[in-house]
Write a structure and sequence with these properties.
CATH architecture of the largest domain: 2-Layer Sandwich
Strand content: 15-25%
Strand order of the largest sheet: 3-2-1-4-5
Distance between the termini: 60 Å
CATH superfamily of the largest domain: ATPase, nucleotide binding domain
Number of strands: 9
Order of helices and strands: EEEHEHEHEEEHEHH
Radius of gyration: 19 Å
Shape: globular
Helix content: 25-40%
CATH topology of the largest domain: Nucleotidyltransferase, domain 5
């Protein structure tokens, strides 16, 4: 057992809104797929799971949150909330990547090597490979489909919200796919933290965002006018 027994876990980076609490053997979860609206739902979800688990915020030992890669806006919502909880309660804010969280979910159920493929909403994919113990065997990266296909470990099962588009782009040239892992089971990830503590290479004690690439930025078509009288 680790020092982290009562944990609030948050994820808003994977196309949904997830709040979970683990407290001893108790757990409570709220999970809803959504493209937008996480900012309005996350704190109410957190309050609901805290009440269901019978905890006050002062009982928490840590806040766990996903740190990307994923949707830029969603990622910022989850991390901002986690940091606010951590600061106000004076407890650690612990990070786990979205790739690692999904790999842990899959390996816990199946015990097989996997490659997590996440949607970027652009032409490429976020990708990372993991062994049957849920440990990373490659660095997280953003790759185009043809590059990704050549680099995939031959015994890897593909999971994540990017696999549908990836399989379409490679014309079905990969057989081992599991489509059931779009949102992370944050209660399960928190249980690993609860049982094993800060596993090296899995959890980051001081959560910092992982982007892998810059956000899309639209530049104004016309030069901004300098306000009259501005110095």
């Amino acid at each position: 057992m680790s020092d982290f027994q009562n944990i609030l876990a948050l994820d808003t980076a994977l196309g949904g809104c997830v709040a979970a609490v683990v407290a001893g053997e108790r757990e409570a979860v709220r999970c809803e797929a959504m493209v937008r609206g996480q900012a309005e739902r996350l704190i109410p979800f957190a309050q609901e799971v805290m009440e269901e688990a019978g905890l006050d915020y002062g009982d928490l030992d840590a806040v766990l949150c996903t740190i990307g890669p994923g949707a830029f806006t969603g990622l910022r919502i989850g991390m901002s909330a986690a940091r606010a909880f951590g600061l106000s309660l004076d407890i650690p804010v612990i990070g786990v990547t979205t790739l690692q969280a999904l790999a842990m979910n899959y390996v816990a159920e199946h015990g097989l090597d996997c490659s997590v493929v996440l949607e970027t909403k652009r032409s490429d994919f976020y990708i990372q490979d993991f062994n049957a113990q849920g440990l990373a065997v490659s660095a997280p990266r953003a790759e185009l489909a043809e590059v990704l296909l050549k680099a995939l470990p031959r015994n890897s099962v593909l999971i994540g919200d990017g696999v549908v588009r990836f399989i379409n782009e490679i014309h079905g040239l990969w057989n081992d796919v599991d489509y059931g892992y779009g949102l992370a089971d944050m209660a399960m990830v928190a249980q690993v933290l609860q049982d094993q503590g800060l596993v090296d290479g899995v959890f980051e004690r001081d959560a910092r965002p992982v982007y892998l690439r810059d956000a899309d930025v639209s530049m104004p078509k016309k030069a901004s006018r300098i306000l009259e009288g501005a110095g």
